[in-house]
Each structure stands twice: as C-alpha cells, then as structure tokens.
Amino acid sequence: MRHDESRALYDRALSVIPGGVNSSVRATRPYPFFIERGDGAHVVDADGNRYLDYVMGYGPLLYGHDMPDPVRAAVQSYASEGPMYGAPTEVEVDLAEFVARHVPSVEMIRFVNSGTEATVSAVRLARGYTDRDKIVVMQGGYHGAQESTLVEGSFDHAEPSSPGIPSSFAEHTIPVPFNDVAAAERVFEEHGDEIAAVLTEPILGNTGIVHPDDGYHERLRELTEAHGSLLIFDEVITGFRVGGLQCAQGKFGVTPDVTTFGKIVGGGFPVGAIGGKAEILEQFTPAGDVFQSGTFSGHPVTMAAGYESLTYAAENDVYDHVNHLAERLREGISDIVADQAPSYTVVGTDSMFKTIFTREGHVAPRNAADVADAETERWERIFWQEMTERGIFLTANQFESQFVSYAHTDEDIEETLEAYKEAL
User: Fold this and answer.
1) Which CATH number does 4-66+317-423 carry?
2) Disulfide-capable partner of 304 in 74, 145, 192, 205 (CB 3.0 to 4.6 Å)?
3) Whole-prediction pTM value?
C-alpha cells in the first residue's frame, strides 16, 4: 500500500494540530492514515486504500458508514431546516421517550454533547444528590477526559493520571480493582458515609474488554444501597451495543441509579446523555439546584439520527445480525489463536471483540492490570501494522474495543479471519 497522501497530510497537521491529531488514540506509528470516506463496512483513505473497518468510530457506528434510509432522510431533513435553535424540539422528546421505554434504569434523561460531558454531569449530580464528595472508580476504567476520574493508584493512595489536574481532585476519588469484591467492601467499611457514588463501566471497554465476574455488579448494587450511595453505570460504549435496546444493564440484570450514554444514542453524531431515576435526575437545573446546561445539548440533527437509528434497530434484525457475525468472528479468531498463538486470548460479547496478547496461558483478563501486563508493544508495533497492510482497520493499541456493524457480511468475516491467520 502507498501512503504518500496520508504522510503529506500528517506533515501538514503537525504544524497546526498538537501531535497532528485531535484525539490522542489516533496517533498511530509511524503516522496515521487519513480517511477520505466511508463505504458500508469499509473506509477509504486519502491514497485510495480500502480497509475493512472494525473501529467503527470507536463504537457509535452500529450501521457502519451507510445510514439506513430513514436515518439518512431524518438527518437531511433536520439539517436543511436550520443548524440549531437554542430551544427545545419535538424530536428530543421522542428520543427521550424511546430510551425511557427500553432501558431499565431510565425514567428521565438529559442529553448533552459527549460521553465525557455525560460522566462529568453524572458525577456532579451524584455529589449534589447525596451531599457527599467521594466517588469510587475502577482501576483502568475510562470515563472521559474529566478531572475526577483521570486518577490512578490504589484506594489509599490516588493521584492524578495527567499533568494539569490538581492533586486535590484525587483526594475525592477512590480507585479499586475491577472484579475485586473485597476491595469494594473495604472501601465502604472505611468511607461508606462519604461516598457519593460508585462509577463503573458494566464491561471495561477501554481496557481490552474485561467482563464482570458473576455477582460482582450485584454486590456493588448491594453496597451502594446499604450506604446511601448511587450506582452509576457508564454505558457510553456498551449502551445500545451490548444487550440490545436494554443495554448491558439489561443483559446483566442489574439496574443502576444513573446511567451515562454516548455514541449510538446519537446515531453516530456527537452526543452524550445522563439517564436514571426521576427523583435523582430532577436535581438538575432548572428542576433542581445541580447546574447543568449546554448550548448544543439536544441538537436536532443528533436527536433525529439517534431516534431513527434506535427505531430502526427495534423494528429490524440489527442486533441478531451484528451479534451473530461477531460471534462467528470471535470463534474463528479463537480457533486460529489455539492453533498458532495459544498465549493469546479472545474476549468480547455481542458485537464487541478483541484479541489480548497475554503472556502466559489462555486466560481472560479479570482487571485492568491483567491487560496492562499483556504484550501491548507487539500489538501496536507489529500486529496492527500487519493487519493494516492486509486491509483490516483495527483499533491502534491493545486497549480499545473493536466492533462489528450491520454493514459487515459473512464474506467480510472470512476475509478478516484469513488476515488474522497470516498476521499471527
């Protein structure tokens, strides 16, 4: 493959954009390829190279790069009638009602503009509702670029994970290992009356896909209820991708107090949302005193795209299709790994998948530390490059999830498995 145009674009970008990219995970080695357009399950770069896409915008593109006709028509209609109004529209009510009908935890919902904004607002809401300051997060969990959760360390020694965050923020955040019930119980024994919320992804989706142990979320639910804290599920990645229209909480049968959304709920356009019990959500201004606002919140084009996307999923076999293909892909990769690379392990559920380059044995990771101990350099420096040269676009490192879309076909899965055989 030739990459002359991408290399030239990256050279230009380095002069005007920090690191040449607008999101740090796009900074692949030696330089990223620049996308010109999408086509179904494929993307085409600036040099005309065509790739089967399993990044899918890091999750929001349930339908791939071709929107279903009702979605496209709604987007075009709302875009042609004006960019935005700074006032409510009917379609945001339609989308709110749809989410409330299908997601177990949602009685009310507030739309915002990104997953980060959703989790920032959810943390503020929990603190305002409980009149407490501390939040418990999972080591290796990701809740966007916000000060309260860009924290690393242990429950008794937390510190900011990035320069620019005062250490005082970390004083109110308690990181614990995912799937460690004893650690969660100890934190509540010592700080139970100070904890506003436990914030967790149902599945760690930004750390190689880590599944909860049986009973883990149920125990978090018991602990938070016993101590008057809130349980917040960050479903920015899993929402409307794992568990269908009920999301991951429906699949696991655990109902949080508050849920954050992003990605698919906006049909691939910039979006975030905070949903939950009415008595909690009504603490947001103007109904309550916890400030939350945003100029572009409830943007009509995004709301229309989200509503029509989810309606289409409800009326068609979307989840059956994507989940079936992803299961075929995971099984096929597992067979290849067993034959060629038995130290690797394949993880995922529904339409999410990932291959973890574990160092010892075929063991699924139970927490972020297990993923961090994997051969992350091999993925980034060798495997990703090899797959890219074979026309397969995967997330650029060991950590982010990968996704199957409605646009993928059985033939795409076979082509992908052949590439895995060669690359591994």
Assistant:
1) 3.90.1150.10
2) 74
3) 0.96
